[in-house]
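S., here's the first fold you wanted:
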Amino acid sequence: MVALKWVQQKQVTVPHLLLEHYAKLNINETELVLLIQIQRLIDSGDSFPTPQTLSEQMTLSVEECAEKIGQLVRKRLLLIKNSRDEETNMMYEYCSLEPLWVLLIQHLETKESEKYGNKAAEQEGQLFQQFEQEFARPLSPIEVETISMWIDQDTHTLALIQAALKEAVISGKLNFRYIDRILFEWQRNGIKTVEQAHAHSERFRKKTPIPTKEKERRQAPTQSENIPGFNWLENL
């Protein structure tokens, strides 16, 4: 019978994220247990647990509970609010843990933002390294600024910038002006992905006739067959 009564007791739900991140919120173990006790009493119908009530559930004295409650309020983890009973028209106080949950959400959002921010910075760093590898030299400050403008002002994705760099390498026109023309052409045609850029390049190649001299050069016998690069922006 005792075991059955224990199973039928209400359970206090403590978010795993709170247990995982409470130290990062500057909450110590005593404060954490006090917050859980306050949540338990609120769930049980006691909307304003007093230091006396909390002291009976913990190893803290009434004075210590009162002091800790004040600390939680000052740290914006607990909110004591006033309200009015509609039936009796009398004012009463109640506790709210809403500031705790808001703080926890803000912490998680900041952590997630930093995670993606660091990843984005790492990817941008790899893009700059790729340019330096293709140009076989360090980039000038103006070139670094140009790439940054492609990303921030023109809102080109890193993948599209890499694809434009590849197009310039294949075409044998490895310079920033040519890469900028490629990106401008893609943006003008509403191209957002690398796949769309490749399809656009293929369509351009198919509808652009090969000059006579180029045909003769391709048909001329050679010791080894070489596939020439195609400057698909030649006529832009």
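And the second, which I think is the more interesting of the pair:
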Amino acid sequence: MAEVFLRRLTRWQAEAQREAVADLYVEAYRGPSGEEFRERGAFLQRFAEHIQRPGFEMVIASDPALVGCAYGFPAERDGRLWQGFNGQVPRELEELTASGRVFVIAELMVLPTRRRGHVATRLQETLLLRSSAAMVVTLVDTANGAARSAVRAWGWQPTGRLLRSDDGEPEREAWSRALAH
């Protein structure tokens, strides 16, 4: 299998790669046949919003074709990330969010043919390399057992669940881990 190379993208480079990233999204999260167009459109809308967030960071993996990517940004200090949280947000996480010390991995995706080759591990490590955050958080669809197993293997801890929203989003589980500096 060809070697995979990682590269950071600026916000503008990420925007220029939006169509390729959307294609990767569809392939990485292959859903029910016929849903690709809707899922791709919803992803592109989220991606356009995420790319505008202050502190946006993105890393891609290629061989030389795009095989994976990860991106994220600092959590908003107002705690908006925790809307719909089932129960009480852990105090430490609430305090770190309010102080601007939580980084959110919004997406981490790898083509199915490149999984189990440590691409996702390398993507998340490279994405977090420059972060000054004390804690990193990601939200995982509760039905995605593979993603839940991966974050657990990387040393993340389940933090709680976010209840389904009215916009049809699946129930998600928050996972977090402290960042060593």
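Why I say that: The CA atoms of residues 18 and 47 lie 8 Å apart. The longest helix spans residues 36-51.

Talk tomorrow,
H.
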